[in-house]
Amino acid sequence: MPPDRRPTPYRRKQNLETPSAIIPAPPSRRKKKTFGWEAIVLIFTVLFGFTYMILYVTLAPSLDKLPPIKGPDYDNKLWGTYRSHMYFGLRTRDPKSPLFGMMWYEQPDAVIRPAIRHWCNQGDGISRYGWVAADGRSFGMQNITEKTGPIRTNWINDKGGFTARISFNMLKGRRYSVIFYLVSQYSNARFGLGTHLSEIFKGTSDYLGDLKVSVDSSKMDSISHSTLLLDDHLMLDKLDEYILSNTKAMEKDKKIVFVLNENHAATEGNFVAVQLNIENSVDLEVSLKTTSSTRNWPEGLENSRRSLKTPFSLASKNYTTIQMDMGKVALSNMLGSIGYSFGYNKVNFSHGIYEYGPQQLFSAVPSRPFFPRGFLWDEGFHTMLIRKFDPRLCLEIIVLAKYGPVLARIYPRLEKWNAWLRVSQMGSQKNGYRWRGRNAETYMELNPKTLASGLDDYPRASHPSVEELHLDLRCWLALCGRVMERLSKLYGTDAEHRKYAKQREELTDLDELVKMHWSEPAGIFCDYGKHSMSVALARVPTPSKERHFEYQRVTSHAPQLQLVSNVFGYNSLFPLMLRLLPANSKYLKLTLEKIRDPKELWTEFGLRSLSTRSPYYQARNTEHDPPYWRGAIWININYMTLSALKYYALQPGPYQSDAENIFQLLRANLVRNMANQFNRTGYIWENYDDRTGEGRGSHPFNGWSSLILMIMSDNLET
Ligand SMILES: *[C@@H]1O[C@H](CO)[C@@H](O)[C@H](O)[C@H]1NC(C)=O
Ligand SMILES: *[C@@H]1O[C@H](CO)[C@@H](O)[C@H](O)[C@H]1NC(C)=O
Ligand SMILES: *[C@@H]1O[C@H](CO)[C@@H](O)[C@H](O)[C@H]1NC(C)=O
Ligand SMILES: *[C@@H]1O[C@H](CO)[C@@H](O)[C@H](O)[C@H]1NC(C)=O
């Protein structure tokens, strides 16, 4: 298992496109500034505890009081790469969409299990893959560096279907099998097999009507094929197993060949596949047609690629070729990885777990192999990038609609969201807040995690308690107040406006913030709670256990209520990042100094998450849980810090030029290091090692790390 898998309950690996059984279908059960980045952050940033993103449903019982979001009002019959976790898979944005996909393997020279590729998997050892160009809507071009040569998967859609060109350029003599399949997700879509590649699948459904899939190649003569048809209850996460369990080894020309075990007993079913056996270099063209095509291959693709306009101008900024390539890959992969899923939200009510839905979710994903589904606070960062490129696509993500009175519909939901946060995460002091969900019982964790915050293992008070107050959450709610004050002026009542003005006023009050969260001796903003300055994870004898010892948290000084002043890191930057510090305040000065100090957060690769002076710096949380937000460089927080630095660089005041200087240096460091790592590995990474700059964690990670493009192109929100 990769070392840095986020072991959080709401980040379970579960690549479902629908609930796992395919058939039967799942049972039914003003000023631009006003809604700029802040609203987007607010819409997405602060969610925790739920399995899936709940975008426009927060409190289900009162849902009927909210204006309906009618949707989706985009064309739900257009095919796209909305199966984020596949090397190559296509579907439409509709629960009834058939799923198209590709698998491949190298023909083994012995009777062993072929190493089949289907879902993106870091364990496949594919050195590079990703979208070279994509618009998230109509076309994509992907390069995959397989062990024995490059593969390209390029595609475009048209009104009723798609065409894909798959190119294999493998080493001479290498034999490969490519499998294309179509699987139905509901009982009214039925598929059959043709005898010729020119009409290899055909089918019908009440959703798409008649459809037909053809495969073509310039080397048709040298390609043999075999087919498979199944009609059964199928699990979507087992499709490659079905292929392999229906594969047999044959001998042909003194070589072993694996082919599909053809069985033509049934004439139609819910899963059809064709396997093509290829050698060396082959171009395959696969098309799905429902109605007449409107675009031709390959001019269509070339035209799409050429007409792709991005608002991210990097020219004349003196970037190297590698840096520019990284910028392109950041954008293409963000767009090419957008996924569509469908299923139920699990909502925890007092009387039990309630399945809410079914719901549709259209969202970008942090990482195709690792986190191929929506995450709320990640999506806030994703949409910052997407909305610059294609504002309508951004709205389709947020409200499944591309126009209309979007904010008016979002406003009542944001109200509930804000109210829910204020009530459910209320702290023990007025205007203080506490993330829920820390484990106060455990002594197995060095510092019990705060998953709700999104900063997982970032150290907080050592002994979780109800007295605890979290700095980042208070700052988020100050931001909520600021945004809601503006939105209520446009969409709310006077009473609401007064209420949010009060929230904003109270939570942005500097004296109050300082009183609650500033440590004068340490000169930092931090959390407050039951905290011991002296804890460690130590080997403790436990005679009853098999190993005779275990790692436990050992506390040498009893915890007491105090500021968590031996932890300086990302959490401490929230007052700066959310612009709660006046431009002439000493708090800004001291925070800037600490940012710039190499013993604290400064590295030549970007800002690290935790000061090297903190006892938690690079500390494991348990024996099995390596540090995650305890030193590593994360791009989303660097992005927020850069935006704030730019903001302070524009505010007249004594620290204006300090902010500008730090901004310039930090930006250059981030871009240089990420590009070096991109050059070295071909990937953008989840986070970066603060000692070596090396990419760490899951990869490719084209979620919020792609904000590097916003940074490079000076698209910071000030
Ligand atoms: C993708 O592959 C094609 C064909 O091999 C090549 O011409 C192109 O440069 C590649 N693009 C990138 C970004 O690697
Ligand atoms: C780019 O580099 C040239 C030559 O080193 C320099 O004159 C120019 O000012 C630089 N431009 C920018 C935008 O940094
Ligand atoms: C649901 O909430 C209750 C009360 O907060 C809690 O005790 C329970 O563990 C929660 N259940 C799950 C599955 O999270
Ligand atoms: C990219 O990597 C190659 C080979 O490791 C190296 O020669 C080259 O200088 C690197 N380019 C940049 C811009 O870092």
UniProtKB/TrEMBL annotation:
<dbReference type="InterPro" id="IPR008928">
    <property type="entry name" value="6-hairpin_glycosidase_sf"/>
</dbReference>
<feature type="region of interest" description="Disordered">
    <location>
        <begin position="1"/>
        <end position="29"/>
    </location>
</feature>
<keyword id="KW-1133">Transmembrane helix</keyword>
<feature type="domain" description="Glycosyl hydrolase family 63 N-terminal">
    <location>
        <begin position="78"/>
        <end position="222"/>
    </location>
</feature>
<protein>
    <recommendedName>
        <fullName>Mannosyl-oligosaccharide glucosidase</fullName>
        <ecNumber>3.2.1.106</ecNumber>
    </recommendedName>
</protein>
<feature type="domain" description="Glycosyl hydrolase family 63 C-terminal">
    <location>
        <begin position="405"/>
        <end position="713"/>
    </location>
</feature>
<keyword id="KW-0378">Hydrolase</keyword>
<keyword id="KW-0735">Signal-anchor</keyword>
<dbReference type="Pfam" id="PF03200">
    <property type="entry name" value="Glyco_hydro_63"/>
</dbReference>
<feature type="transmembrane region" description="Helical">
    <location>
        <begin position="39"/>
        <end position="59"/>
    </location>
</feature>
<keyword id="KW-0256">Endoplasmic reticulum</keyword>
<dbReference type="InterPro" id="IPR031631">
    <property type="entry name" value="Glyco_hydro_63N"/>
</dbReference>
<comment type="function">
    <text>Cleaves the distal alpha 1,2-linked glucose residue from the Glc(3)Man(9)GlcNAc(2) oligosaccharide precursor.</text>
</comment>
<dbReference type="InterPro" id="IPR012341">
    <property type="entry name" value="6hp_glycosidase-like_sf"/>
</dbReference>
<dbReference type="InterPro" id="IPR038518">
    <property type="entry name" value="Glyco_hydro_63N_sf"/>
</dbReference>
<dbReference type="GO" id="GO:0004573">
    <property type="term" value="F:Glc3Man9GlcNAc2 oligosaccharide glucosidase activity"/>
</dbReference>
<keyword id="KW-0812">Transmembrane</keyword>
<dbReference type="InterPro" id="IPR031335">
    <property type="entry name" value="Glyco_hydro_63_C"/>
</dbReference>
<keyword id="KW-0325">Glycoprotein</keyword>
<keyword id="KW-0472">Membrane</keyword>
<dbReference type="GO" id="GO:0005789">
    <property type="term" value="C:endoplasmic reticulum membrane"/>
</dbReference>
<keyword id="KW-0326">Glycosidase</keyword>
<comment type="similarity">
    <text>Belongs to the glycosyl hydrolase 63 family.</text>
</comment>
<dbReference type="GO" id="GO:0006487">
    <property type="term" value="P:protein N-linked glycosylation"/>
</dbReference>
<dbReference type="InterPro" id="IPR004888">
    <property type="entry name" value="Glycoside_hydrolase_63"/>
</dbReference>
<feature type="domain" description="Glycosyl hydrolase family 63 C-terminal">
    <location>
        <begin position="308"/>
        <end position="398"/>
    </location>
</feature>
<dbReference type="Pfam" id="PF16923">
    <property type="entry name" value="Glyco_hydro_63N"/>
</dbReference>
<dbReference type="GO" id="GO:0009311">
    <property type="term" value="P:oligosaccharide metabolic process"/>
</dbReference>
